[in-house]
Amino acid sequence: xxxxWRKQEKNLYLPKQxxxxxxxxxxxxxxxxxxxxxxxEDFAERLKALYPIAYAIRMxxxxxxTPEGYFEYTVYPLEGIxxxxxxxxKLDKLDKNELIYTIMIxxxxxxxxEVFQRALETAKKKKANPLFNEVTFDTMEDGLSVQxxxxxxxxxxxxxxxxxxxxxxxxNLEIVTLVHREIYISDARKVAPEKLKTVLRYRVKHK
Length: 207
Description:
The protein has one domain (about 5-205): Multidrug-efflux Transporter 1 Regulator Bmrr, Chain A. The chain has a 6-stranded antiparallel beta barrel. The protein contains 6 helices and 7 strands. The termini are far apart. Helices cover about 30% and strands about 30% of the residues. The chain has about 210 residues and is of the alpha+beta class.
């Protein structure tokens, strides 16, 4: 039976459209860093470096190699951690050119550095992309967090963040860092902006 994150991990990927508290365990990711407007060409190129590796890992048994502990699964959604440059933080209005990000795709627990390196080599053989060399494999743990599902254009996320900040205050919590995580449940190339589903998440701590 195929492991599907939409069914097995609803609490992390399909929250309600209102803020809630969640504890996120340590997770494995392939990731790449970047800076600038996510609507630009550079961001798109970085995406093209992540997905071939993610699919190379999933398809390994078909290529004649089965990692220890492998199971069939659906590739996880794209995630991003977003921050601003020093200059960007000082501006009154968001300048997307001043965004700093790390985009990533979560990996199942059986994935190791060795499995990642093997998938990286497979991806490189299929199609050259200089950005493959910037992709890394690592673990992250968000821990205690507040999250909600934002439905609508990315540019309207401020409304959801305001609700989350209110909820955090009301529950005697505080934000650890304004660097936040977004999980893209919808494919922006195929879904109308008003229907886009994005999980927004802040790491928090008790006051």
